[in-house]
Amino acid sequence: MRDSYNTPLNSRYSSKEMSYLFSDDKKFTTWRKLWTALAEAEQELGLNISDEQISELRNNIHNINYEDAEKKEKEIRHDVMSHVYAYGLQCPKAKKIIHLGATSCFVGDNTDIIIMKEALLLIKKKLISVIYQLSTFAEKYKNLPTLGYTHYQPAQLTTVGKRVTLWIQDLIIDLENLDFVIEKLKLRGVKGTTGTQASFMNLFNNDEDKVRALDQKVARKMGFESSYYVTGQTYPRKIDSIILNTLSEIAQSAYKFSNDIRLLQSMKEIEEPFEKNQVGSSAMAYKRNPMRSERISALARYIVVNSLNPAITASTQWFERTLDDSANKRISVSEAFLALDGVLNLYINISSNMVVYDKVIASHVQNELPFMATENIIMEGVKAGGDRQELHEAIRVHSMAAANEVKVYGRNNDLLDRIVKDTIFNIDKATLDKIMDPVNFIGRAPSQVDDFLRDCVYPIIEENKSLINTEVNINV
Q1: Is this prediction's pTM over 0.90?
Q2: What are the tens digits of pLDDT across the range 150-161?
Q3: Which of 435, 451, 468 is the last residue of a domain?
Q4: 387 with 326, same domain?
C-alpha cells in the first residue's frame, strides 16, 4: 500500500526470510500448532479428546480464516479468543476442546519464544557467513603491510589481514554469546493464568504427575527440551532483554566494522562494492560514497538504542504480569531482528566484495615509515661507530624538519634523504633501503593471522559449513 506507512525494515532492509518470521501467517499458524500440541498431549494423558478432533485441528493449521477472526475481534476486543472462535468455525468437532485449560499467554508467549529462537538461528547463519567471508579476506591480505592507528594517528605498522582478524574476533565473541542464548532458551510451557497450573490441576483431578508431564510433552512437541520451571502469567521478560542485548552486541561489532570501512574508503585504501551504474551524489558525479557501510552504522545505532526497551519492560512488570509490555514488545523485539537482519545482509555483501588499493596503502606506509624507523636507524648508526645520544639528537632535528616539510609546505617526507646526507650516521642508501622494508615493521602480524584462523576461525567454519550462504539481496 502506498497510502499508509510501511516500515522500511520490510521494504528496504530485511530479508523476506526474516520478515516472514514476524508475519501474521507465522504467528497464527504457530498459535494453531500450539493448540494442536496441547490437545494431543492432553489426549495422551487421558482426557476425552478424540483422534477425529486432533485430525481436524491438524488439517486447519495453515488454513486461517482471517476475516472471521478480525470481525470477532472488533466485537469482543480480544485477539486470542477471536482466533479460538475462528479456529472453531473450521473445526466444529474440535471446537469445544480448543485452548482447553490454557490462558492467552499459552499461545502468545510460547509463540514469541518459538519465533525468536528461529530468528536467532537465522542471525547465526548470517553471522557465520560474515565470519567465513572475512576469514577468506584475512588470509589473502595477511602479509600486506598497512599503517596501524591509535587515536586515529599513524602508529606502528600492522597488516590488512591482521586488522580484519580484529573484526572477526568481535564476531566470534558475539557468536559464543548467541549460541549460549539459543542453547538456554526454554518454552514458557503450560502454566495457566498466573503460572500456578491451577486450571490443569482441575482438568487432571489434581494429578501433579500428569500436569508436569503435560508441560514437558508440549515443550517437546514444539521442539524444546523443556520449559521454564516457574513463570508468572508470562515467560520472564528478562528473556527479551537478554536476546535484544545479544542482538545489540552483534550490531556493535558491525558498527565498528562499518566505521573502519568508511574511514578506509575516505583514505582510498579499501572500498566497499560500488556498482557500475551506481550514483554517489546528485551533485558531485565523481563521488563514491560508502553508502552500504553508512547504512550498517545507521541501522546498528537503532538496534543498540532499541535494546533499552525490553530492559525497561523487564524492570517494570508488576507481580505476575502487567500489560504495558505488549505494545512495546511487539514493536521493539520484531524491529530489532529485522534491523539486524538488514545489517548482516549488508555485512555479507560488503565483506564478499571489498576492493583493496595496495598501491595507495603502500604510499601511505612510505610517507610515515621514516618516522617509525628512527630507532632502527639509530641502532644501525651505532653499529657503524656512532654515539647513540648524538645520533638521537641528530635524528630528532631531522625528523622535525621533515615533518615541517610535509605539514607546512605539503612536500614529500625527505627524512631519509637528510639521514643519508648527514655523515654522523655513516649509512648509505642501500643500507637504509634494507632497513626501510615495511616487512621489518609488522612483527608477527602474518603469523598471528595464521594462528587465529587455524585455531579459532576454521573450526567454527567447519562445524557450521552447512550454514554458510553468501548470496544475499540488497534492495537499495
Answers
A1: yes
A2: 999 998 999 999
A3: 435
A4: no
